[in-house]
Amino acid sequence: MYKIIDGKQISAEIKEEMKKEVAALNESGVSVGLAVVLVGNDPASKVYIGNKKKACEALGIVSSEYLLPEDTSEQSLLELVDKLNRDDSVDGILVQLPLPRHLDEKKIINAISPDKDVDAFHPINVGKIMIGDYIFAPCTPAGIIELIERSGISLEGKSCVVIGRSNIVGKPMSMLLLHKNATVTICHSRTKNLAEVVSSADVVVAAVGKPKFVTANMVKEGAVVIDVGINRMADGKLCGDVNFDAVAPKCSYITPVPGGVGPMTIAMLMKNTVAAAKQKQK
47-53: long-range contacts at Cβ-Cβ below 8 A with a sequence spacing of 24 or more? Predict the structure, then answer.
């Protein structure tokens, strides 16, 4: 019988731990601050920003929001990032992606101080993750490691397959798994015999962005399956990249959608912000 990995419960545990750490920092005269920048009116981004604000308030983190119009110039955004870089009350800076098309995402990410880059997208932080010398990692992959380890699953020596090679999930995920002494294979749209490769894995991380892409014939008995996908079906319901009903009976552990990986992203953002504040004190 498979076990559900409960992302809501594990994210709540992490938030409670961070609340205590923030309280301890506050007692020593240190406040923890997160600045969130949103350009434009993307509805999903607005909801996400609202959730981040609530999480900050619950944990005692000082949250500052910068809601900029859709037509904000690149120069104006770069000036704001520079101002936040120099602001000692700000420990973490998050520029919500995607940005409007006229803005160069790479240029904006590169302008954020690596010490305040709590998304861990800056090239310096990407390099640190590569060599295993990092303070924080991208929120979703870092959250997946927490889900696995807090469920009592050892990654050492395990065969892990990551489906998807994005800079946000796939690539950093593979690095974090390697740092846990797993043997890692990355699959993507050009992978030959993909079902065969995936079916050899002890742990499958599906981050491909296609509804119910992973089917029962792609998963071996007793595998751990982590579903990163969030796809909205025609009937309005959410589903992941894994065909849950068909795949779950073959698994030892599996994450649901919703309620699996999703809640971990904000929890890890809070953890990264606290880590940035503690690092600044050092």
Answer: 48/96, 49/96, 51/266, 52/94, 52/266, 52/269
Q: Which residues of 22-49 are buried (b: 16+ CB within 10 A; e: fewer)?
A: beebeeeeeebbbbbbbbbebeebeebb
Instruction: Give percent of the chain above pLDDT 70.
Output: 100
Catalytic residue among 6, 91, 96, 241: 96
Active-site residue, selected from the candidate residues 6, 91, 117, 119? 119
Residue 268 to residues 155, 183, 264, 272: CA-CA distances in angstroms? 20, 24, 6, 6
Three-class DSSP category at 254: strand
Q: Which of 146, 154, 148 is nearest to 226 (CA)?
A: 148
46 is catalytic: no
Mean pLDDT of 185-197: 97
For residue 184, count CB atoms less than 10 angstroms from its CB and return exposed for 0-12, middle for 13-18, buried for 19 or more.
buried
Q: Is 52 tagged catalytic?
A: yes
One-letter identity of residue 91: D
Count, in order, helices (H) and strands (E) of the chain.
10, 11
User: Residue 94 is inside which H or E element, if any?
Assistant: strand 92-95
Structure tokens belonging to residue 23: 């309280």
Tokens 């009116």 found at = 41
DSSP string for 30-59:
---EEEEEEES--HHHHHHHHHHHHHHHHH
96 is catalytic: yes
| Count of CB atoms situated within 10 Å of the CB of 223 | 24
Domains delineated in the chain: 30-113 (3.40.50.10860), 139-262 (3.40.50.720)
pLDDT for position 229: 96
Calculate the CA dihedral of residues 232, 238, 241, 246 and round it to 10 degrees.
Answer: -130
Mean pLDDT of all residues in 164-182? 97
For residue 82, the model assigns a pLDDT of: 98
